[in-house]
Amino acid sequence: MPISPFLADTFALAHRQGWSRRQMLVALTGGAAATMLSHGAHAAAKELVFASWGGDEIKSLTRAYGKSYEAATGTSVVFDGTGPTEGAIRSLVDSGDVTWDLCDADGFTAMRLGASGHLSSIDYKTVDAAKIMAPFAFTHGAGGYTYSYVLAFDTERFAGRPPMTWKDFFDTRNYPGGRAIYRWMNGAFEAAMMATSEKPTNPYPIDLTTAINRISRLKPNLQTWETGEQVQQMFTDKTISMACIWHTRAVALAKETEGKIAFSWAGGILYPGVWVVPKGNPGGIDAFKLIAHMQDAGRQIEFTNLQRVGPANPEATAAMPKALRDYDPTQPENLSQQVIVDSKWWADNFDKARTEFADMLQRA
Question: Could you give the percent of the chain with pLDDT greater than 90?
């Protein structure tokens, strides 16, 4: 959700009174931000504010990157879990009082915000483009990790004949039960385009009419989810038998249910998590130095271990420990079954797709 006018005003007032960004975050979060720092509430001479999505991601970012960066440079990394939505980044830059140095975004968001002038171009003299798997080295964003939308299913519901393709996902006659897809459409539209084939096929360019009509036929058994917790509860409540879901949540479900919920890489759609720098960020070039620090293969492997995301650096993919390969979407045996997102298509079509998708959901 976009940053609230109240929160933006609070930051602005505190900034005018001479507070450091670290002090502002500690005050607004009741001290929670301080616990994520390697030196607690101890003031540092320099700092960077990294906007993420909160929760366990902050803990993992701190362990994999934040502590080592402060140790190496003396610059602390403060994590703000407000949620760097596209609207929030736009509002912050338009306000002229930017408080974030680095944000976690989608590839298509990096393209959209770059085109509208809200992001700085990535300094590829500091950031190594060779350490970002193609095609996730964007002009206004550097791929930092990867994740996939995959088919997850209830094995008890389909004992002996598990669904393995998006064709099965859309086949409610042979595979009855509820279905769940992401509220913001990603993954679901690609799945709809691949639903006529037993093997992964290039779903781009997505035909909106075809995709939306195909998804519409899943109603009234269709549900949408916005958080991993929501879709997990749907499986627990038995209101769905299949879901198009982030692979990270699918991995967790498979482990927690001891295999009662399983997933397939077949037809998965690989997306990037992208580091972007808001135009006018206070830390300047140091934001790119932090990105370069996070490109280290060993650190990306540690982030994979903590979050079950895939790396963006091909060196990390090659060096991934055997114990983590089953969870890594970039491993050759997993990637070969998937397709890679066309971020430009989403950048060009997101608004229209969102409008038509919302209209379809509202129709009886």
Answer: 83
